[in-house]
Amino acid sequence: MNRPRIVDPRAVPVVGTDAHLPALNLQGLDAASLRRRFIDPMASRWAPEIPGDGRFAGEREPTPAAVLVALVARPDGWHVLLTRRTEHLRDHAGQISFPGGRSEPEDADAAATALREAEEEVGLPPGQVQVLGSLPVYTTVTHFVVTPVVAVVQPPMALALDAFEVAEAFEVPLQFLMTPAHHRRHVFEFDGLERQFLSMPWRGPGADGVAREYFIWGATAAMLRNLYRFLAAA
Q1: Measured between alpha carbons, how far is 190 from 54 in angstroms, rounded to an integer?
Q2: Containing structural domain, residue 207
């Protein structure tokens, strides 16, 4: 049986937060420290908390994909580059996501996919991106098998958005996202079926400087939660 789709995640009841978990201490976490975490043999002992959305919906074949978890060095600490997708897209329209997309035959690996997609979607030059490593794949209910590629970006950045796919690019402080008190748990029930997901609503300035709420949820929130587990385990 297929899992029910969630049309309006903001309307799904919140059953709690994860305030019982400690916020990460990111002081002193520089690019070299981040890179060491990906090559440390101890890093292989952790496992992603949320490996995917669950059972596939429909009969579509799994599609390899990759996203770029770009950590931007700012004076107040690391920020994560995110995008808001345009409303007319077939998959995940209007949602908050990392730059990324499906793999193409010419892509050498997941990192190549993430770099190519980030350049196509937001105009981020690959030469400005220092890839650190990858997190375990995340499988979405829409049949994408996504590799999160973690990288460091040194500003300044002159982004150029693909207006067809990306409505907006913005940044969220990594410290906010790595604080589980901001991780809200939702339970969606429909026709006897239950689905759980995380959200991390953030209110802050967009690219235009105007403050608004960005509802980070679903696969993007889950991959950020897995990043939290990875950094906490290192």
Answers
A1: 15
A2: 17-49+59-233
- Report the b/e string of 208-231 with b at 16+ CB within 10 A: eeeeeebbbbbbbbbbbbbbbbbb
Q: Residue 67's domain is classified under what CATH number?
A: 3.90.79.10
Question: Is 187 a member of any domain?
Answer: yes
Inter-residue contact 95 to 85 (CB < 8 Å):
yes
Tell which residue, 222, 145, 146, 195, has the closest CA to residue 5.
195
Q: How many domains, the chain?
A: 1
Q: Is 229 helix (H, G, I), strand (E, B) or coil?
A: helix
In a domain, 175, yes or no: yes
Instruction: Please check whether residue 2 lies inside any domain of the structure.
Output: no
Query: How much is the pTM?
Result: 0.93
Q: Which two tokens stand for residue 195?
A: 């689905």
| CA nearest to 167, candidates 116, 93, 218 | 93
Q: What is the pLDDT of residues 139-185, one digit of tens each?
A: 988 889 999 999 999 999 989 999 999 999 999 999 999 999 999 99
